[in-house]
Amino acid sequence: MSNLSLDRSRQASFIEAPSGTKWIPFRNIFDMPKAHAWETFAKWGERWGGIMSIKLFGQTWVIINDPNIAVDILDKRGNTYADRPELPMSELSGWGRALSNSRYGPRFREYRKLIGRVIGTRGSMKKFYPAEEYQAAMFLKRVLSNPSRVDEATRKTAGAMILYITYGYKIQEDGQDPFVYMADKTMEEFSDCTTAGKYLVDLLPLLKYVPPWIPGAGFQRLAAKYRRSCENMAEVPLKFVEEQMAKGTASPSYTADLLKDPHISEERMQDIKWSALSFYGAGADTTVSVVQSYFLAMCLFPEVQKKVQCEVDSVVGRARLPNYDDREALPYVEAVCKELFRWLPIVPLAVPHRAMADDVYDGYLIPKGSWVVANVWKFLHDPDVYHNPFEFNPDRFMGALAERDPKDFVFGFGRRVCPGSHLADDSVWINIARTAAALEVNLALDESGRPVIPVPATTDGIIVRPLPFKCDIRPRHERILDLVKEATEFEDSN
């Protein structure tokens, strides 16, 4: 069954595009990339063009390597491509009910409506600014107390912010917070099981009926484990809010506001529970990945760090930390954030869309049911769009000839665009602005005193982060510790 062949009868209905769009002649399932598929797809695109097709076990995949084609198909024809394909591994793991994986229909629209009420516009985010500024200061405190654990500090900070907005939950500062740990673990599993094509069951859906005790059905046992984590992440924080509301001690939050209705149906309760779970991916993973990328970039491109620090000092000074009121006056900080989104995109290969009807693009038929995959990594590393794309250069977004804003691509397309994009963007900005103001990031030294040059590489999966690296982190000046202390007054945890 591993041999792949082109369906000749179906091929006849594909009209070759003037640009030479063709089917890729797959010989074997093992031709499919095992990791970092976005890089392989980009190489294929150099030969086969901006839009190409492969067929795996009868399933058509349409891979888009050209950003303009992605906009034409996924944005401008959003009604046709609003659906998600069935991803059996994700379904078996419990994630079929989450917003990102929901099929297009009433449940999907209800989730987006609920989330949009809270974080759907830039204006709606302003009520969260004080909490986000506080958590950005707490991030500095966490890093300064343990500079070797930036990864831990970013996860804790991002988790604290999202858990507070979603459930009114205040994390414990000492040790490992149980909710943050649960959320981190669950999102890692989500990234694994939602990577389209990673598991054979996604290519042969009938395998989802194979009993877990059958040899070779290890994916079933793994999915059962993932499902328990997913259901706990959806259920446990909801129970926390209900208990706090019963005591009259609940903080304002997305979930608490929706639970105020005394006549909630079971269906409505499920909508609240699963839409709340979607918040974590909307902001936490973005913040973790992008902030970690900042530390990596500052090690490799110290001239950028000097320039962004100079801007912050000239606008804000050294007597306080930046806040959201400073945003318009800090264009280079904004450019740094855009370049972080572009340089190491957190979702390099977008979650597939599904064609809900036959569609013809530039003479090329995309059959109903096709999986349409946007290679976001390729869009953001296209030398025709971004000059020297592998260089970290925020200046590309400055001035009248600024290059294209990467946020046109990183938050998705059409009706599947991330409803938490404003939350993610705001969270990244305040953390980068305050980190630039407070911390000096340099290359770590080895035992011989020689600099250790990190490699700008990422993990694999639907959501990626920089691979572990070492750096040297210190406060920029003598007032930093006092400023951080003033901004992080003691707050009780739950």
Q: Explain this structure to me?
A:
- The protein is α+β, with helices and mostly antiparallel strands.
- It has a single domain, classed as Cytochrome P450 (Cytochrome p450, Orthogonal Bundle), CATH 1.10.630.
- Helix content is 47%, strand content 7%.
- The strands form 3 sheets. The protein has a 4-stranded mixed beta sheet with strand order 1-2-6-3. Strands 4-5 form a two-stranded antiparallel sheet.
- The protein is globular.
- Its cofactor is heme.
- GO terms for molecular function: heme binding; iron ion binding; monooxygenase activity; oxidoreductase activity, acting on paired donors, with incorporation or reduction of molecular oxygen.
SSE topology sketch:
Blueprint (H helix, E strand, L loop, with lengths): L7 H4 L25 H12 L2 E6 L2 E6 L2 H9 L12 H5 L13 H14 L9 H17 L4 H18 L10 H16 L6 H4 L14 H30 L6 H6 L6 H35 L1 H15 L14 H13 L9 E2 L4 E3 L2 E3 L4 E4 L1 H5 L26 H4 L10 H18 E5 L27 E5 L4 H8 L7
Parallel strand pairs: 2-6
Antiparallel strand pairs: 1-2, 3-6, 4-5, 7-8
Helix pairs in contact: 5-12, 6-7, 6-17, 6-18, 7-8, 7-12, 8-10, 10-12, 12-13, 12-17, 14-17
